[in-house]
Fold these 2 entries.
Entry 1:
Amino acid sequence: MEIDTKQKVSQEILLKAFRHMMIAKATADVYEENRNICKYVHSTSRGHEAIQLATAYQLTKEDWVSPYYRDESLLLGIGFEPYQLMLQLLAKSDDPFSGGRSYYSHPSSREENLPKIIHQSSATGMQAIPTTGVAQGIKYIQEFNLKTYEQNPVVVCSFGDNSITEGEVSEAFQFAALHQLPIIFLVQDNEWGISVTKEEARTSDAYDFAAGFVGLNRMKVDGTDFEASFEAMKKAVDFVRTERKPMLVCASTVLIGHHTSGVRREFYRDEKDLEKHRAKDPGSLLRKRLLEEGSDEDLLKQIEKKARLEVEQAFQKAVEAEDPKPETVENHVFAPTSVTEEVGEREPQGQEKIVMVDAAIHAIQEIMWKHPEALLYGQDVGERIGGVFRETVTLGKKFGNKRVFNTPIQEAYIIGSTVGMSAVGLKPIVEVQFADYIYPGINQLITEVSKSCYLSNGKFPVSNIIRVPIGAYGGGGPYHSGSVESILCNIKGIKVAYPSNAADFKGLLKAAFYDPNPVLMLEHKGLYWSKVPGTEEAKTIEPAEDYILPLGKGNVILEADKNETEKGRTMLIVTYGMGVYWAKEAAKTFAGKVEIIDLRTLIPLDEKLVFERTKLHGKCLVLTEEQLNNSFAEAFAHRISKECFRYLDAPVEAMGSLNLPAVPINLVLEKEMLPNAEKLANKIGEMLNY
């Protein structure tokens, strides 16, 4: 796209930019002079000021921007004061972005009169997907008239050049181009990626790379020239605001400061390279330009002097600010949920039993009729087949392809986009086709989804539902049969449900929808249709529309005989998913001697119920379908043992699959690997005879 830089930028804007550049320079100088105080790793914007300020000046309070960790000038330009930035630099309690939990220039903001900023992480390029999710959400909101804006919002996602080689950035480019989203990808190219040169890292710059994404508009600009940058960003923002199409801006910049305070320029750069970059210092170039245009040199010197004084005063004030109180360290892991009690009718009269897959379809249908902010997307969930397990069938036809739609094979995008969608007030329900294919999305799940509430100090909990068909049966083989709950339960800041029957499934889905936090629904494929022998009881009476089952409530589905318990001849099995049906079948051999708890939710976990019943019975087995070693089940067995030690008559044990890298496809081998009722009955016999 052609850029007309002949239009003259007003003197007022040039002086404003010069002031901000001098503040940015002064902050870098003050931080360097106080290295012993600035003990946390940080980067500064030195060399990038022009393009960052030019971008900031275009944005309004209804726009969204995702700065990256070198974007302090962008933050200054949109309206944050040096003192506010320094509170984060020094990890102080009043840090407006993270409450002292995250690095410098890792903002998150819902300030009413400023552009909005979702949680920003350090992981290179990972902001691309959540920020594209913001643009996706805005497009959805406008298509369905869910909110009125004063003017069309624009979304800006800022990067360094080396982040563009990340695969997840390409997923964002692809989705933005495919769906024509109102987003600007701003790439600041200083030719360095820590010590990695552009020649070592890439075959082309971002401008040439973007040519492969049909529908992604692009432009180049000298990001050290403020006037050229201002005109380019004005044109880019006006284009996206009007045309509602994506744009990539590739801005050449220089790196004058250190990569970070911890990786210093003298470690890897020679004087020749540094001189080359210093010659394009945006502040010096703008100063020269202002003098050419007739600005008074004394005025510019006064601006520099005032900037230095302002920064020194702000820094001293930030140094004296209070640190966070230790007792706040656990705040904002989750946002509070209103769903704490089981409500509604679980077994309405006159209703027929339904299979689990229908319970999910009906629950989502009821949600979507009632809540226009709810939408469903993932691989193959659209109208044509309604999911590979028919788990979304009819929904596409009922709600249309703007609310229920197929995505590319982009697990990272499917999961990470929910961050942005949630931030603008939507409730995305997304699906990863098989548990074995969740791994490409784990990065977004850990880096962005799980940390957003905590590191934004509670401003941006991610409200989503991620559906994951899971588990083995019938020769699904090594890439369609895996269990992944231990990996997921190791991620702090997400919730994990694992229903074993239709009623629980419907109730938990409703709870997940009204929960403001990320919820993964693990859905055993073998229970969807109750086709596996022994799983008939996964079919239940369908609960009423008002039925909600809170997360974190286990259920005693089989009680032991009280007389047997009083004689010390009973035990407890704690399980979930398919394990419920192995346990029920095995318990038939030991009439009255086995009690079974269906956990239903793994995070939060109903430890109170399990501990109470373990203390009553004195013997406990945790049963899982996962490979046993280092599993969720083993870890929980340890906690049960520690909490209930004085009440135990035998060691708490765990039982699961053989410790193999994958589930083999051959049915004989699959059976040998997995637990079953027969194997479990042998274990029960051993424990009862302990």
Entry 2:
Amino acid sequence: MLVLADANLRLDASAIDYIELAFYFVLVLGIGYLARRQVSSSLDFFLSGRSLPAWVTGLAFISANLGAVEVMGMSANGAQYGLPTVHYFWIGAIPAMLFLGIVMMPFYYGSKVRSVPEFMRRRFGKPAHLVNGISFAAAQILIAGANLFLLASVVNLLLGWPLWVSIIVAAAIVLSYTALGGLSAAIYNEVLQFFVIVIALVPLTIIGLVKVGGWQGLVDKVTNSPGGTAQLHSWPGDNLTGFGNSLLSVLGIVFGLGFVLSFGYWTTNFVEVQRAMASKSMSAARRTPIIGAFPKMFVPFIVIIPGMIAAVTVSEYVKDKQVLLDGGTAESGVTFNNALLLLMRDLLPNGMLGIAIAGLLASFMAGMAANLSSFNTVFTYDIWQTYIQKDRPDGYYLRLGRVVTSAGTVLAIFTAFIASNSGNILNYLQDLFSFFNAPLFATFILGMFWKRMTPHAGWSGLVFGTLSAVTVWALSKLGVLGLTGQGISFVAAGTAFVVDIVISVAVSLATRPKPDEELVGLVYSLTPKETREHDSTGENAGWYRKPGLLAGIVLILTIALNAIF
């Protein structure tokens, strides 16, 4: 990315584009300033006072995920692998989002915990809590760095600034509104950013399809380009997994991605769960991920298809796509991460270019702000307040939260340079998810449905599961296992899950469990059904507010999309 501005790949923005961007940034900072006026306690700063309606938290839930992974990462995957990338949405997201809303949110919201690690402390005790808190905080800084790197890349292409200058300026913008208004500022900006992203990417997709002669024209061009017809069918996805065997590829996608990575990310990742926790009622909390699932189904059409179009129309890819697919370095200096930017450069006129750039910046800011807002909550509540400074006045933790947000931003600046070394940012992020989310999901799911699981099993399963994922990744990078592509993260995640379960069961059988009375509200079989249900009267009344019915509609639509593509 460092060479892009010197390789004549600059975006040719005009005065109108810069005016649109300036207006957008003023709006973002204004929302942060207004949100600050509503912050009077640490609960307001970290969880929006648990006062937001479901439609706001639902859009924020999906917008928080529309960062580097969704926009640049999935468009890069679209350019590199094609339609198999839809598995990250229809297999690797929707089922887990529905499970979160129907099964897990009643435990999170009903227990009134302030974070996912706090739930771990109540279920397993302090050792598991501390391991989860530290690993989560580290993961958010690394992922925030990836979002920041891509945000800075746009500034680099737009203005030609050195990458390090772009990273610092981009970080300052996100920090300004996140530190001002806390979670409320992040959430309301995420709602705004959701609409900006859609307005930016839908025209780009339509114009791109017109250029290639519609869907059939795209099919013809992809068929005759490096990668061929494997990029036009979602199943079996051999090119995505790199397994070279269709049966193993399907198993890797369904188990590694669809179960372990997906459920690990969506059901235990506090970045997402925090949005639902900010809801005003149990019903709203349960509906939050389900509402987010509706737009999630259709995001592939505005991120993957532009990546596919870029791969067959952008001159740099037409020349060097085979080189990139073979793992080489393109003469032009481009990587698949640049797909969306280069398509914007080639297709969008001034005026529309400014909106598209604002959409990209919005996506990266939404992702980074989500990482920072969850990082400051976990660090302040689960690490500092629990283990370092207990029982201080609430104002102390509110002030600390703003300081921690600033410190997290500085750390993200350093991790942005780590992310800059990845040719496909999604590979990098999926590796991180296999390290941190896959073993956490194993611990959660076993602990929630097996009351015999003990506190010692909670922390030991997490530690050994994470170490096993890192080992698989290291052996793959050294060539010992022979895994390539995103199959590395699928296998690492599956290994972490299995190792965590085996260790947890073995340790549980050798150690003492908690008494049943201490597990009420934390274990499914010991929690009365009425406490898991939501109030369906008043503002929660109406068939269209029933979480089960909404989840059923989403599931039917998702199955239909899988059948069609």
